[in-house]
Amino acid sequence: MESVERHNVHVSGNPDGKPIVFAHGYGCDQNMWRFVAPEFESDHRVVLFDYAGAGLATAPYDPARYSSLSGYADDVLAIIGELDLHEVTFVGHSVSAMIGVVASLLEPDRFAKLVLVGPSPRYVNEGDYVGGFARTDIDELLQSLESNYLGWSSAMAPVIMGNAERPELGEELTNSFCRVDPEVARLFAEVTFLSDNRAELPNVSVPTLILQCSDDVIAPAVVGEYVRDAIPGSTLVYLEAVGHCPNLSAPAETSAAIRRFL
């Protein structure tokens, strides 16, 4: 059970229930699901984990392995394989949404459903495609991150979180960012913000739910609508939740939307 140990996997809930795997976003760890995951323990086998370089994971961070989202998808599949999970509902927040897409294409028989929370297949605007950022914006973001990661975290986390009237949420995300090794954070940011997974979306074969937040500066509504149009038969649900982290800012609404899909 090497991957289970290395990725700080926690399994809870109903051992006879269908598995639901919660995957965290950039700069975060499994703790970000603490208000959502328990809502599914009565009838699901709930699986939480940390990616390499995040949380309490001891998996070595190999820059070559994690130079694309496929390396992270391989880790997800290794965990699912070691736990011998089938008919998995994979709930991926932010960059984990596309990691889940990649994983489901590599081993579709393992998955029953995908839940993509604030997904973006491509952050950079390109031609007619609107991702929300000019390439110069992303370059400046990465340069700022590299030159002063703690300062970047303090400035960006509250913007990403939104909900300015609840500063404790931005503070929690800031602290989460600041716990990540700066070099790992820089490399993961490059992969996250420069990846292009648009071509994979039409190949998704499992039922998919897209949860789109209001006023999400990282993944605006036009991106969620693009994902819906690209994934055959997918469902887009607009949340009242503001910002990019509804698992923290609006866990009840997030849980209810996932529950309806299940």
Secondary structure layout:
Elements: H1 2-6, E1 10-13, E2 18-23, E3 44-48, H2 69-82, E4 88-93, H3 95-106, E5 111-117, H4 135-147, H5 149-161, H6 167-178, H7 182-194, E6 208-214, H8 221-230, E7 235-242, H9 246-249, H10 251-261
Parallel strand pairs: 2-3, 2-4, 4-5, 5-6, 6-7
Antiparallel strand pairs: 1-3
Helix pairs in contact: 2-3, 4-5, 4-7, 5-6
Could you please describe the fold and organization of this structure?
This protein has 262 residues and is an alpha/beta fold. 41% of the residues lie in helices and 16% in strands. The chain has 10 helices and 7 strands. The chain has helices at residues 2-6, 69-82, 95-106, 135-147, 149-161, 167-178, 182-194, 221-230, 246-249, 251-261, and strands at residues 10-13, 18-23, 44-48, 88-93, 111-117, 208-214, 235-242. Helix 2 (69-82) crosses helix 3, helix 4 (135-147) crosses helix 5 (149-161) and helix 4 (135-147) runs antiparallel to helix 7 (182-194). The longest helix is centred in the N-terminal third of the chain and has 14 residues, at 69-82. The protein is globular and about 45 Å long.
